[in-house]
Specification:
Elements lengths: L8 E6 L20 E2 L5 E6 L4 H4 L7 E3 L1 H8 L10
Antiparallel strand pairs: 1-3, 1-4, 2-3
C-alpha cells in the first residue's frame, strides 16, 4: 500500500500555461496527470520546493494554497460537478 504524498504548496494555474511546466519540478508527472477544473480553464500543481518556472515568473499562478486550502477549493464548483 502506498501513501499519497502531501505537498507543502499547491497552485491553480491557467490551462494555457500547461506547456510551460517542467514536470520534473512538481508532484505531477505530465499534463495528463494534473487535476483540471470542470470547464478546463485551470489545473493544479503541487510542490515542496518552488519550481523555477514559478520563481522566475514564466508561470504566474491564479492562486497559491496549503493542502487544507486546496482540499476546500476542490470541493467547490468549478472543481466538482453537480451532475449525478
Amino acid at each position: 500500500m502506498s501513501l499519497k504524498t502531501i505537498y507543502k504548496t499547491y497552485a491553480t494555474i491557467p490551462i494555457q500555461d500547461i506547456g510551460e511546466v517542467d514536470f520534473s519540478q512538481v508532484g505531477q508527472t505530465n499534463a495528463d496527470t494534473v487535476r483540471k477544473n470542470i470547464p478546463s480553464t485551470q489545473f493544479i500543481l503541487s510542490w515542496n520546493n518552488e519550481p523555477t518556472f514559478i520563481e522566475d515568473g514564466t508561470i504566474i499562478p491564479d492562486g497559491i494554497y496549503t493542502y487544507e486550502e486546496i482540499l476546500t477549493l476542490t470541493r467547490e464548483e468549478p472543481w466538482q460537478s453537480n451532475e449525478p
